[in-house]
Specification:
By secondary structure, this protein is of the alpha/beta class. About 40% of the residues lie in helices and about 15% in strands. It has an 8-stranded parallel β-barrel, surrounded by 5 helices. Bound molecules: 1,3-dihydroxyacetonephosphate.
Length: about 250
Amino acid sequence: MGRLPFIAGNWKLNKTVEEAVDLVRQLKASISGVKDVEVAVAPSFTALYAVYKELEGSSIHLAAQNLFWEEKGAYTGEVSPLMLKEVGCQYVIIGHSERRQFFGETDETVNRRMKAALGQGLKPIFCMGETLKEREEGNTFSLIERQLKGGLRDLGEMEFKSIVIAYEPVWAIGTGKTATPQQAEEVPRFIRERLERVYSRQFAEEVRIQYGGSVTPENIKGLMSQTNIDGALVGGASLKSETFSKIVRFKEM
Ligand code: 13P
């Protein structure tokens, strides 16, 4: 059984509405005709609706970079799952390391967001990954296990099929230091083993696991050749259609 490759661009805090629309317009042209690869882009909140309009009729999916778990109420500055659905999102990135590092995200809040997203039919791109210190101290696998269990706590089996996992070693994000394909493969393999042991064999086999951290047109092929890597969550290289489309077209290299 094959897992459909999934390449997503996380634009982070970049692009005005005009720039965002311009980028997806170019992207539609540069990846037209690509088959058997699912593609998504995650613009900032302000650009979601305009990008959604520009993407209508194309196969590129829309993702948000975060969400809040409540539906509505006195939560100044937050955005709800329903609001994201309304502007055309199918996916939402949850628990990105930058949110964990800079905005106090914990396994518990990640879990609340996961439940809220799934409750509205949004598909989570559930992120996890170790810092350099955690790696050097030999804590990578225990950390991954904690993040995995924390984020999936109390979810029903029915919900597993909507989840995508993104393994992003923090030391590889935005640093130009990509993990070698072998290093990048270790953790997704471990994740699948744990999922099979703790949850179900079907979940372990079917869940798509992306790698993220300095993915480029030069290294995508080696990463995608690994058994347990099914895609990429791309930061910097997703900001230009030229580089992102090359990554999407990895099969042609
Ligand atoms: P870079 O590709 O810029 O390293 O970012 C990776 C990332 O954090 C994607 O979510």
